[in-house]
Specification:
By secondary structure, the protein is of the alpha/beta class. It has two domains: 26-284 and 491-502, Aldehyde Dehydrogenase, Chain A, domain 1 (3-Layer(aba) Sandwich), CATH 3.40.605; 288-477, Aldehyde Dehydrogenase, Chain A, domain 2 (3-Layer(aba) Sandwich), CATH 3.40.309.10. It is 41% helix and 20% strand. It has 16 helices and 22 strands. A seven-stranded mixed β-sheet has the order 14-15-16-13-12-18-19, with helices on both faces. Strands 9-8-7-10-11-21 form a six-stranded mixed β-sheet, with helices on both faces. Helix 6 (127-147) runs parallel beside helix 7. The radius of gyration is 25 Å and the shape is globular. The protein binds adenosine-5'-diphosphate. Adenosine-5'-diphosphate is lined by residues 178-180, 205, 207-208, 238, 241-242, 245, 261-262, 265, 268.
Amino acid sequence: MTIDSCWLVRVKMFVKSRLLSKVCFMQTRGMHLLNQKAYVDGEWVTSASNQNFNVINPANGSVIGTVPNMNVQDAQEAIEAAAKAFETWKFTTAKERAHLLRKWYNLLVENQDSIAKIMTAESGKPLPESAGEVAYGNSFVEWFSEQARNVRGEIVPSPVPSKKIFIDHHPIGVAALITPWNFPHAMITRKASAALAVGCTCVIKPAEDTPFTALALMKLAEEAGFPKGVLNLVTSDRNNAPAIGALFCESPLVAGISFTGSTQVGKILYKQCSSGIKRLGLELGGNAPFIVYNSANIDKAVEGALISKFRNCGQTCVAANRFLIQNEIFDEFVDKLTQRVKQLKLGDGSHPGVNLGPLINDAQFHKVSGMVEDAVSKGAKVLAGGKPASQLGSLFYEPTIISGVQSNMQVYNEEVFGPVISLIRFKTEEESLQIANATERGLAGYFFSEDVTQIFRVSSHLEVGMVGVNEGLISTAEAPFGGIKESGLGREGSHHGIEDYTYIKYTCIGNLK
Ligand code: ADP
């Protein structure tokens, strides 16, 4: 064999082996992201106690897999790893961090189908919705990869000639991130990519119901090449979560906490953080009004209601919770809405054509069914649904509309977090605002009106952090997400999203001649 033909054989063998490995990789693509270990200091680890817990598919009750049930000892190790990594990560350039975030984003896009499948399996979301969340979650990584290089300081004119005033932004240190099950991808990337962009390191504790999506994100972050200890993820069951949360709040090595979840847990974390005056970002529950005025385009309002209420089976903190419909258009709106709701298909989210999946767990299911029973027992009328869909599985609840909702009913006062539309009739704009604002919560609010003066008036009077006008879907990486009152502190996403992870340092250079 000549040197040339020998070379040709080697090239052919190389190409063949690459093709084979690519085929194998593609066949196991979904599987290589379903990781059953936690991620600490660049290693895939079990728990100190060697205990695991099961992750359940809410559509059929099957066990998807197990993950380590970590405790405070494990969490402490993750915090120490993140603190050590911070000492070098904080000195990386914005360009380096932007580059790594971009690599992570590219891998997330490349693997979007696998992540969506894992998400549907553990959260019950219909597959197209999971794909939507993956795109939404990825967009935060892309956004903050771009923001990293746009965090700029200021030089402020000094009142005296001998001094110069410099202001710049520094990373706070280790950020502990506690996330919920309803957006298992986006709630992690919205926090972590902002923290990483400015030079913080992270310890993440995902929800016990949905750790596999979170672990898939870590796998791809590892592939992207984040140095060890920069991103850490501890998994735990519900019983271990409070102790881990307390450690995050009280550890002197943690500089700040960012939490998305219930107002009840948010309040616990707020109290615990007081001992160390720790930085805290809270995205808590909402009680969004959805107001339809006489001037509204009814078809747009019906579409807005469907998207705002039934996304993720009503389990979103920005979901419309109280539907306030003005007298004149009440019947038309309710007729059109009822027809559409009756067409929604409930089922296993991995099956084609399904619009709504199951509720996430027993606690959620009992809360939702209990609220409808409470309303009906106090005189509310069921226009659609109103009962469990037990033929599909133990966690399915029919998309429901109830009218005649009164202030003594739970659905009027509390966040339903389920597929239930509660209708309230009102006469005047003042009355609608009075009802809309009569709540301790202030996350999102929606209204439909074609009257431009009303649009400006009502937007300014609604006591919420985010307003959707003639729009039921408002979340995007470019806009600040967050609430007022008991709905939380701080803003995520947008260029404000880095504020929770940076502190402002003022440097005075004096005695200049
Ligand atoms: P939900 O009731 O919808 O599950 P939670 O606010 O209880 O919402 O949970 C959101 C996240 O907070 C989850 O990751 C959960 O494990 C975690 N968590 C629950 N209780 C605590 C706590 N006391 N301290 C810290 N984290 C907690």
